[in-house]
Protein 1
Amino acid sequence: MPQNPASQNEAKRLAGEKAIEFVEDGMVIGVGTGSTVAYFIDALARVKDRIAGAVSSSEQSTQRLRGHGIEVMELNHTGNLALYVDGADECDSYKRLIKGGGAALTREKVIAEASKTFICIIDPAKQVPVLGEFPLPVEVIPMARSLVAREILTMTGGQPVWRDGVVTDNGNWILDIHGLAITDPVGMERELSLIPGVVTVGLFARRPADVVIVGGEPPRVL
Ligand code: 5RP
């Protein structure tokens, strides 16, 4: 559903603020990346005295969390988390996602895997019947870029495009696959992940979201 930027931002804010209702006293919160998550972090700042800290999925989110005086902790020290809150580029009716528009997909997928409950916060434009209209991000180690691109073309028929100039927080590069209609997200996630040189595929289907909050007046909790 096309939205104008102002109402889309308002929907993101409403989704981010609604997610605060899932935060419980003493929790360490997994925090994703992006403009919707930025609203969540700003809302989290208002309850920061109730939480133990946050595990961040990107340098960008770490800066914003620290700017609010929220302690950023290492996943290696916290162990598994009760709650992870993150945005998405696309979301289907099974809560399977495309993520990585902000190039933070690897740490996002690690934190999602480590979390009991993954809450995805989106504006209505992110809801789709079939994943793939948004180009699917794939993080690759730099020396494997052209090999992985050729394999992607053969395997999927989609068109891989190098996100030139973007270096991830892990020092890697991003290929965005255009022209997909992903009818088997779990299978595609598995197959693409097996290509040597692929670090992370931006499909979150094997481990989808548990709860989706669609921003609006009022927000919808799915
Ligand atoms: C970053 C992501 C983001 O969650 C996704 O790109 C959505 O971003 P936004 O909330 O700005 O629309 O996956 O890697």
Protein 2
Amino acid sequence: MRILMVSAEVETFARSGGLGDVVFGLSRALAKLGHEVCVVTPLYGNTPLDREHRYWLGSIQVRVGWGARDVREMGVCEIDEGNLKFCLLAENQLFRSRKGIYGDAGGTFGDNELRFAALSRGALEIAARLWPDGFDVIHAHDWHAALAPIYARTAMGETWARMASVFTIHNMAYQGTLGFEALDRLGIPRELFSWRGLEHEGNVNLMKGAIACANVVTTVSPRYAREILRKADGFGLDWYLRMHERRLLGLVNGIDADRLDPSVDPRIAHRFGSEDVAEGKWENKRALLAEVGLEPTDAPVFGCVTRLTEQKGIDLFLETLPALVDRGARVILVGTGDAALERGLRAAQSRFPGRVASRVAFDGALAQRVYAGSDFVVVPSRFEPCGLTQLYAMRYGSIPVVTDVGGLHDTVEPANIARGTGTGFVAMRPSVFDLLVALEDAIDAYADRDAFHRLRLRAMRRDSSWTLSAKAYVTDVYQRAITAAAR
Ligand code: GLC
């Protein structure tokens, strides 16, 4: 099968969170299964180009909009890894001159809809050039790529209109909402501006448009697929998703199990596997505490690596810190984002010196050392489409303490220490009280060394690799989209 992936983030080129990891991991897993995958993403100002690459001869023409000046010449930088190709859109004004995916130090870019319209349209032009005799499916991720299925269905003629397409929702909170004047500007047919199409509360809603145009819509866990049908979690589109429920599917994300492996990871202090997990965790814990300036201890260490947004519930976790410190625990918080939450992180460190350490940073290597060196990783999200940190944590022998939402519900089985089952601790609701209960349970479990060791092994042995999900994407998603498009 030939698959065109379109995403604003792809790990190893540009990443701000889980989206980049998922697009990269899924694409690689599909290629390993023997499919041909072309991943299209922009060549941003800070995209590293350290891998072998070549520029296509001649540029492609990308039309974004209806004006006479709305055609751009773009270069294509290709990285060829056999079945897996990356095609980076090289254009100076929109991408290469900007040091950021969505914004830079000066804030969010004001023309993101235009930039991502160019990405979406450019991806289709690249596929047409790469596969002149056709391909099988367009797979677009989040609102930034929403215009790929929309343009294919409505703006590019008969052949494209029959192309199978899949749209994956990684987060309902970001829908790409624009004023109605964006219609003409982005070359979207006016017929699509209705309640059945991409109109939402008088605005253009790109996510809604992609849901309307794609043959199959997926999200990143089965539980989240059900949650977004409810008013509380649908961010205004729950009614629309309920209308299209038959075409909506939830598939849980995997992780790149080859790269994220504590027995080979060069970024951690001491490599270890399940055979020497006790020593390995101990050595990494010592190194981590020293690195972030915390007092050495036998007591449990709680780590937390996150984007700092309301979604992630870090404010809830901050309120539990006095109780954790009181029980002797150490806490390491790593993240960037919302200014008030960044202040909260810094304040926690000054309030509990030697006990709580905060790093206001987006630091992938430190994140790995937190997974390797902590006993628990806390994920207190208010909602969580899938969540990857709990999967990374388990792989590195760190026990997740999570809320019972979305992908956290689907990937963390509540531990029953007496029966010797489960892989983590689950707070019933995203509240300070429920989180405290789960954290207290975690500390109690830690005290029983043998039982805790077995819990750790269960967590490490959980299969979070992409293989299963990638196969399901082929049979349950792409095949279905192809069948639907042919009707
Ligand atoms: C978004 C979601 C997160 C998910 C990731 C990858 O970042 O918030 O839950 O794991 O996308 O799908």
